């Protein structure tokens, strides 16, 4: 990360750390062996994906196995988009970008409760901070790309908002 003249890191906005919107559409692809439905979508990490969903059904009645009507293909695309938006440890690994901050944070929550014998109120507080503060800011970011400058920028942004006490900001980090 580049540094400014006073050797401070160049600020990163919180918007740059948040996940991008998930979107996609259907394409009808012509092939010699018959037309196919293809889904094209971009996930929250900004990665574009393509997947052939099945053959185009042009006949009347219900499609046979392996064939899809436009509505059926749209339902499959909708399910793909739901999976792309889903929050959870397996969601980002499927993209192939490695372990994300969210994966690590959720794994830490699973570890800390039984192994460290935390009280229920402490665990509720941890979950609140992870779910409502840290994951919205860093969730989709691959853990290997997370830097101390990013965390410092996040802390500075929280201080600049001037709505949280210093103790609360320290607890978040």
Descriptive report:
Helices cover 47% and strands 14% of the residues. The chain has 173 residues and is an alpha+beta fold. It has a four-stranded mixed beta sheet with strand order 1-2-3-4, covered by helices on one side. Helix 4 (101-116) runs antiparallel to helix 5 (120-138). The longest helix has 19 residues, at 120-138. The radius of gyration is 22 Å and the shape is elongated.
Quickly describe the structure.
The protein is of the alpha+beta class and 173 residues long. The protein has 7 helices and 4 strands.
Secondary-structure topology with pairs:
Elements: H1 14-17, E1 23-29, E2 36-42, E3 48-56, E4 67-68, H2 70-85, H3 89-93, H4 101-116, H5 120-138, H6 148-161, H7 166-172
Parallel strand pairs: 3-4
Antiparallel strand pairs: 1-2, 2-3
Count up the helices.
7
Distance between the termini: 21 Å
Give, in order, the helices and strands: HEEEEHHHHHH
Percent helix among the residues? 40-55%
Characterize the overall form: elongated
In terms of per-residue confidence, which ranges show pLDDT below 50 for 5 or more consecutive residues?
87-97
Radius of gyration using CA atoms only: 22 Å
Content-based structural category: alpha+beta
Mean pLDDT comes to 78
Strand segment count: 4
Biggest β-sheet, characterized?
A: 4 strands, mixed
Question: Order of strands across the widest beta sheet?
Answer: 1-2-3-4
Quote the beta fraction.
Answer: 5-15%
Keyword list:
173 residues, elongated, single chain, alpha+beta, 4 strands, 7 helices
């Amino acid at each position: 990360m580049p540094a400014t003249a006073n050797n401070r890191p160049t600020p990163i906005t919180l918007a740059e750390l948040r996940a991008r919107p998930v979107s996609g559409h259907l394409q009808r692809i012509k092939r010699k062996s018959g037309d196919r439905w293809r889904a094209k979508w971009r996930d929250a990490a900004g990665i574009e994906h393509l997947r052939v969903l099945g053959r185009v059904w042009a006949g009347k009645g219900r499609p046979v196995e392996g064939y899809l009507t436009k509505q059926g293909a749209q339902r499959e695309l909708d399910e793909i988009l739901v999976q792309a938006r889903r929050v959870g440890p397996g969601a980002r690994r499927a993209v192939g970008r490695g372990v994300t901050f969210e994966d690590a944070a959720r794994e830490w929550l699973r570890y800390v409760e039984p192994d460290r014998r935390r009280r229920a109120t402490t665990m509720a507080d941890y979950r609140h901070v992870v779910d409502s503060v840290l994951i919205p800011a860093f969730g989709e970011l691959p853990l290997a790309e997370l830097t101390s400058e990013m965390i410092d920028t996040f802390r500075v942004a929280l201080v600049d908002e001037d709505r949280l006490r210093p103790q609360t900001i320290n607890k978040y980090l």
